[in-house]
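Consider the following assembly input.
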Amino acid sequence: MPRALQVLNAAPEGDDAEARAELRTIAGVLARARREIATLRPHHLRSDTIPSADAELDAIVRDTEAATHTIMGAAEMMLACDAPTFAAYRTEVQAQALTIFEACSFQDITGQRVSKVVAALHEVETRIARLSEALGQAEEALGGPARQSLLNGPALTGPETTQAAIDALFEADQAPLPPSRF
Amino acid sequence: MAVDMQMPILVVDDYKTMVRIIQNLLKQLGFTNLDDAACGEEALEKLRESEFALVISDWNMEPGTGYELLQSVRADDKLKETLFIMVTAESKSENVIAARKAGVNSYIVKPFNAATLKAKMSAVIGDF
């Protein structure tokens, strides 16, 4: 039995029975929360799961950046190719095209990394849900500053507003714009 | 009036790969007087130090988003006439409307291709 409850039960009853009952309820909730937190293995989440996911995401950014630079480098080489003969030009282009194919293997690696991150997120989500249930917490509406509402990043299934729709918005609004001096 | 292909253009994006993509596309279009910045804050510093005809900027960057950069440019008497094209993955209509109200000249949603960049630039600086 938690220490708080022991103290409450051992103290003589007085006029504050209602307050004691409330305190016993609170002590019970806290004890339940502590037990639930212990089963969540927060130390494991903090020391292993989340840092691993962070590392995987950092690696994804690093790998995709490296692959993109390799691909662009090969494309730049092809564009700048000034071989003396068509045969030499073709050899150079083929070599660079092969470099591009090799660089595209990043997609396989990053796909696997993403799967690991998703698994880590599921683990965290499950544990939070269990804790939330144990505490009987209702979800609160989250508000954010107006600035954050314009920072959403890329939509999951492609642009929410197509380029054509954006162009139409601009055409509809014919407000004059500042002229350029160039 | 013919477009000055030597016009100084500032490309602003926190992803170096995107800066490289846009600059390569601009070079293919014939523009070679290019500079870049990695965030709104750095871009504003460069804009106050040198003259740029056109800014091509991402939105989602820190410190200083592309939207905040646009607002700063339009609020500055010396910079307010700078042409500004937003190139961004922010595709909600609220973003487009906010940028338009802030004075953006054109808005390109990512991913985009060379033809779209050329078309939007032509709409802003003239045919080339």
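Helices of chain B lie at 16-29, 40-49, 66-75, 93-102, 114-125. Ask yourself how this observation constrains the way the partners meet.
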